[in-house]
Design brief:
Elements: E1 9-13, H1 18-33, E2 37-42, H2 51-56, E3 61-64, H3 88-96, H4 99-108, E4 115-119, H5 124-132, E5 136-140, H6 144-155, H7 157-160, E6 165-167, E7 176-178, H8 184-188, H9 194-206, E8 211-214, H10 218-232, E9 237-239, H11 243-246, H12 259-270, E10 277-280, H13 290-303, E11 306-311, H14 316-320, H15 330-333, E12 338-342, H16 347-351, E13 356-361, H17 365-374, E14 377-380, H18 387-398, E15 401-403, H19 414-425, H20 428-445, H21 450-463
Parallel strand pairs: 1-2, 1-4, 2-3, 4-5, 5-8, 8-9, 10-11, 10-13, 11-12, 13-14, 14-15
Antiparallel strand pairs: 6-7
Length: about 475
């Protein structure tokens, strides 16, 4: 269907964090392929993230509003990557101040959007959509289990707020967690604080959305998809993932990639045996402390396993704050068995290489899906946000992963860590299950698969608006 046949105009509103924007842009790419007219709302500093999509789809319009800021954010910050997890709430509250401007923009349009597709962190957009008189469609970059848990929390906050150990007996498989392993939004929430009330009310408003779209797939979370449909009282809950499988331009986008460094990585991998390499990376936000980095590098050394370690380039201030870079002499000592990448790494391609058999990860949802698509087992070190919940699902229920460590401040014993790495990497059962899950993910996005069906259904419904 070409845009002239469709021409249905949609406004896309991503949340400015790397792990949020990319999946929503992948979904946007799919909508563009079906001929929708798209406008994407961003603040100035987040505009470059759209470059790969804009060069593939020049028809995309951008709506750029200055970021209104927030008292607790340093001047000039517009993306979570510049402040870490603690920036989520103030950025959500800051963006909510755009409500009036968005409303004015809608009124001034000769052909205004007929729906707003927004990131689930921006739940206040749901009420704005209602005021404008268009459907609000919430896009979840996370799994359904997390959203089911958040729904329970906000609905019965009083019952949960004082507990040190929390059980969700009304949910399938009765998930249970110590308080420290609950989502950060629950732990940090301050009752009565205006910023936090915007966050909480937004999550509650998501439950009123016209449609809910998830970056997950049926074989991974069928019970929770069923649970959520029952909770919401309708079937307009769709799973269209793993969206990185159907993908789009800019998913692996990094314009300043060092080609020779990339070649070095894959030349090295080509010389390794199948499934013998452990890939170690902790997402775009998380930094390890000096003690953690030392324990990790010694653990990798003691494990006897081949590995690729991605280490961030630290600023002088981060070093001063106690974050750790790769200890001196480490690269020389492991040169035959290990490869250290400083800065950005082509994660999707590395995971997809036949030599990689494991992924030591913080268990962020995007990383989880990338590992699943590659058919690689995860060695979990969850630290914050949704990561403990994702790790619980993979370790306790899917049985495709091992937990080798946990907690943002925990320093593992290096010998013990080395032993766990070695054990997990020689566990053929985990590797087998990871491959089975990969096959189910591939099946989901094929014609006739559950995710492809749901994507087609969304396109059909939106085309009729």
């Amino acid at each position: 269907m070409s845009s002239s046949e469709n021409g249905v105009h949609l406004l896309i509103f991503p949340f400015p964090a790397q792990g949020h924007i990319l999946p929503l842009l992948d979904f946007t790419h799919q909508l563009l392929l079906h001929g929708f007219k798209i406008t994407i709302l961003v603040t100035p500093k987040n505009l470059p993230i759209l470059d790969p999509l804009l060069s593939t789809h020049p028809s995309v319009q951008t709506l750029v509003f200055p970021f209104p800021g927030h008292p607790s954010l340093p001047a000039g910050v517009e993306n979570v990557k510049d402040v870490g997890n603690s920036g989520n709430a103030p950025i959500i509250a800051g963006l909510s101040k755009l409500r009036g401007q968005i409303l004015e923009w809608f009124k001034a349009q000769p052909n205004p959007p007929v729906a707003i597709v927004y990131d689930f962190f921006l739940g206040w957009t749901q009420d704005l959509a209602q005021e404008i008189g268009v459907p609000g469609i919430v896009f979840y970059i996370t799994g359904v289990l997390l959203v089911s848990i958040l729904g329970e929390i906000w609905k019965n906050f009083g019952a949960y707020k004082g507990l040190g150990f929390i059980e969700f007996n009304g949910l399938p498989k009765s998930p249970r967690f110590v308080r420290e392993h609950m989502p950060s939004v629950f732990q940090k929430y301050k009752e009565g604080d205006p910023t936090w009330e915007i966050v909480r009310n937004g999550f509650i408003a998501n439950g009123r959305s016209f449609r809910s779209v998830f970056n997950t797939f049926e074989a991974l979370e069928s019970e929770y998809l069923g649970f959520l449909k029952k909770e919401m009282g309708h079937d307009r809950v769709y799973s269209i993932g793993p969206i990185n499988l159907v993908g789009g331009p800019g998913r692996n986008g990094k314009s300043n990639v060092d080609v020779s460094a990339n070649e070095r990585i894959f030349t090295w991998l080509d010389e390794c045996d199948d499934e013998s390499v452990l890939y170690v990376a902790f997402g775009s936000q998380k930094l390890l402390t000096k003690a953690q980095m030392e324990a990790l590098t010694i653990g990798l050394e003691k494990s006897g396993v081949r590995f690729i370690l991605v280490a961030k380039q630290l600023t002088a201030q981060q070093l001063e704050e106690g974050y750790g870079s790769v200890p001196e002499g480490f690269e020389d000592r492991v040169s035959r068995r290990g490869l250290v990448i400083k800065g950005w790494a082509p994660q999707v391609e590395i995971l997809g290489h036949r030599a990689v058999g494991g992924f030591l990860s913080h268990c962020g949802w995007n990383s989880v899906l990338e590992a699943i698509v590659a058919g690689v087992q995860i060695l979990g070190w969850p630290m914050e946000a949704d990561q403990f919940i994702n790790a619980w699902w993979l370790v306790e229920n899917m049985k495709t992963s091992a937990r080798v460590c946990e907690g943002p401040n925990f320093v593992p014993g290096p010998i013990e860590l080395g032993r766990k790495i070695s054990e997990a990497m020689s566990n053929d059962l985990f590797k087998e299950r990871a491959k089975k899950l990969r096959d189910e993910a591939l099946e989901a996005v094929k014609i006739g698969g559950s995710s492809k069906r749901d994507l087609d259904e969304i396109v059909r419904e939106l085309s009729q608006l």
